[in-house]
Amino acid sequence: MSAPTAPRARIRRLQLADFRSYHAAEIRAGDGPVVLVGANGAGKTNLLEAISLLSPGRGLRRAGLDQFAARRPDGARAPGWAVSARVEGAYGEVMLGTGVEAGPEEARARRCRIDGEPVGSAAAFADHLRVVWLTPDMDGLFTGPPSERRRFLDRLVLAVDAEHGARVNALERALRSRNRLLEDPSTDPRYLDAVEQELAALAIAVAAARLETVRRLAAGIALGRDDASPFPWASVTLEGEVERALAERPATLVEDQYRAALGAARPRDRAAGRTLEGPHLSDLSVGHGPKGIAAALGSTGEQKALLIGLALAHARLVGEMVGMAPVMLLDDVVAYLDPTRRAALFEALERLAGQVWMTGADPSAFAALGDRAERFLVTPGHVVPAGQPADNST
């Protein structure tokens, strides 16, 4: 087995307060994989979602703030919620925390803290912890619309560039501003000039970050290519006019050209009611490497295995680029794998050297992990070490 190439980040203690189905919960973890076992609907994914909020973005479900607060017995939601974790990372041990404090509705906003001190956003957590995940919602990635693959790609970029999410959000705001201005034919062209200048700068920044991540991911996949692996290697490319231009010309020149194209396309875009060119329409093209076919043409099993292989490659890339092996969240991933693929997955995860949190309904699915894993039993509102009665959890 190869030695770890990056420092490990470990969540040593996870605490929840009024979060989703938990009024209070705590998990203490060691060095091994963490396995959360419980019936469907018990709250396993809620625990992974809590961890995902310790990274930039809106978490693995992309939920709104109002959906995180636990419901009280009367059906009303709690006035606030909190997720905190003691993390052992590259800079030693720190406490990361995020949540919404109780207070007037207009003043409620998500807060983030490191060792009790406020920070601007969850992007600041990236110095201490990187998180990547794979969930059942991603199973239709290859056959779904391009917007789903763009969102997937942006999550890949965000794991190595904590500011990428802010740029993507700013790009979406600039696009909405331009579209609103185009609705009125009498809009002063100078307003459109200003918005398009900002839009072009953001578009190039977003496209360049995506393109660089895809390039690095493709290079890493090529380096570790194994046609015999149960998780086939993927070919990945980024398709889009701006991205093709960036691959051939300097970013400053592409930005000028895109800004000019936006100006020339105003009549067309006004008629369409939207901006018809830009990285908001690009697509991540994924192929089944060993077979040389588009991922969408593979069987359901092949697509699942390909997605797992892609997630493993991304986790390796994060470790190489940021110098810290990420925490990996696998929600109900092993349930549909045969014993051979399960064993291969566990071996691949061990080589990554990062902490892994996994969920499943069937304890036997994790038997191959032996005593290397720490197992927890999840029941509605409770999580306890396996073998401990659930009513002792609070």
From TrEMBL:
Domain of life: Bacteria
Locations listed in the record: Cytoplasm
Residues that hold ATP according to the record: G38, A39, N40, G41, A42, G43, K44, T45
UniProt entry keywords in alphabetical sequence: ATP-binding, Cytoplasm, DNA damage, DNA repair, DNA replication, DNA-binding, Nucleotide-binding, SOS response
The keyword Iron-sulfur appears for this protein: no
Main location: cytoplasm
InterPro entries, per the entry: DNA-binding_RecF, DNA-binding_RecF_CS, P-loop_NTPase, RecF/RecN/SMC_N, RecF_2
Cited PROSITE patterns: RECF_1
Record keyword Transferase present: no
RecF/RecN/SMC N-terminal domain location: 11-356
PANTHER family, A to Z: DNA REPLICATION AND REPAIR PROTEIN RECF (PTHR32182)
Known role: The RecF protein is involved in DNA metabolism; it is required for DNA replication and normal SOS inducibility. RecF binds preferentially to single-stranded, linear DNA. It also seems to bind ATP.
NCBIfam families, per database record: recf
Stated family: Belongs to the RecF family.
The name this protein goes by in its record: DNA replication and repair protein RecF
Source organism (scientific name): Ancylobacter radicis
Gene: recF
